[in-house]
């Protein structure tokens, strides 16, 4: 099969490598499309290795059709069925073997390209909101990087939970799009103090939940934005790993909860429960042609143009997901 490999200079090459065989409890998916994630950029640079036992190939999600069914598979899967899957790695390839517990059927209104935009971003957003923050109706949720794949998913999931999404982004175009997706307010963090704007919007109360992929450079404004007893959920560090100052004191005075979460390194059991819950609670909303939920796709690239796709993400101009097509669909 063709797959994207990282060469010695850190560049991406398409090479022919052996096709994986499905192991016990696994399905083999003939990949139609995958999607880029920030973790891919880090892994390419040697900063985010895959968990033990996972594929060294980049790619944390994929859509396609079932090509083979491994021994011990318990579900009523059918060869040729359209599916999407959460991966620990291996998505940038024409085939990937996946535990059946991490595989979901593609809702009928969605194309395989659209389905590739769902697993990592939507499961991450769902996990952050419901497994970690336990968001409640009418709570205000501050979402950083509101026009990203996770951000646009989180906006829609917050609305689905009858809570109130407020976002930050770095351009008027991104803010306008986030508001079209359902954000109650958008704040340009490059031009405004987002903590002041959050406090104005909430009439001084602050955000009940913060979804933060930035980290270090935002910590002080995050705490200023946080409501008493609020939950600050950290899931990335695009703004650095360090925080100088009275972080703990200010957090303590707010009785704030700092919750940290990653998805890739979680156990199969945890991921399987997340997929099961998401399949029951969210996927049915995608089944109708007038669904209130939709995956957001910024752009699509062919497998051969994978380096261009990465450059597009590194430029931080994308709104929604960047899709990588395998040419199998």
From TrEMBL:
Pfam families: ADH_N (PF08240), ADH_zinc_N (PF00107). InterPro entries: ADH-like_C, ADH-like_N, ER, GroES-like_sf, NAD(P)-bd_dom_sf, Quinone_OxRdtase_PIG3. Residues 10-324 form the Enoyl reductase (ER) domain. It comes from the Eukaryota. Keywords: NADP, Oxidoreductase. The keyword NADP applies. This is Quinone oxidoreductase PIG3. It comes from Labeo rohita (Indian major carp).
């Amino acid at each position: 099969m063709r797959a994207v490999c990282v060469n010695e200079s850190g560049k991406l090459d398409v090479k022919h490598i052996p096709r994986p065989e499905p192991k016990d409890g696994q399905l083999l998916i003939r990949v139609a499309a995958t999607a880029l994630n920030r973790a891919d950029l880090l892994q390419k640079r040697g900063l985010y290795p895959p968990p033990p036992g996972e594929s060294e190939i980049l790619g944390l999600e994929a859509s396609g059709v079932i090509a083979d069914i491994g021994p011990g598979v318990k579900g009523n899967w059918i060869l040729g069925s359209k599916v999407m899957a959460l991966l620990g790695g291996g998505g940038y390839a024409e085939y990937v073997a996946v535990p059946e517990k991490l595989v979901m059927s593609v809702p009928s209104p969605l194309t395989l390209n659209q389905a590739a935009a769902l697993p990592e971003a939507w499961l991450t957003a769902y996990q952050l909101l419901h497994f970690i923050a336990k968001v409640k109706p009418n709570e205000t949720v501050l979402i950083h990087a509101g026009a990203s794949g996770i951000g646009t998913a989180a906006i829609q999931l917050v609305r689905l939970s009858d809570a109130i999404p407020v976002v930050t982004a770095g351009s008027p175009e991104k803010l306008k799009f986030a508001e079209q997706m359902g954000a109650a307010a958008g704040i340009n963090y490059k031009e405004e103090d987002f903590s002041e704007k959050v406090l104005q919007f909430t009439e001084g109360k602050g955000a009940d939940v913060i979804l933060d992929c930035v980290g270090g450079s935002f910590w002080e404004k995050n705490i200023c934005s946080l409501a008493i007893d609020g939950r600050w959920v950290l899931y990335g560090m695009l703004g650095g790993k360090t925080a100088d100052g009275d972080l703990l004191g200010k957090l303590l005075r707010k009785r704030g909860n700092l919750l940290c979460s990653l998805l890739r390194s979680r156990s199969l059991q945890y991921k399987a429960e997340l997929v099961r819950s998401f399949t029951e609670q969210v996927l049915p909303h995608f089944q109708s042609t007038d669904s209130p939920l939709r995956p957001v796709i910024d752009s699509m690239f062919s497998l051969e143009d994978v380096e261009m796709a990465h450059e597009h993400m590194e430029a931080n101009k994308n709104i929604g997901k960047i899709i990588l097509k395998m040419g199998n669909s």
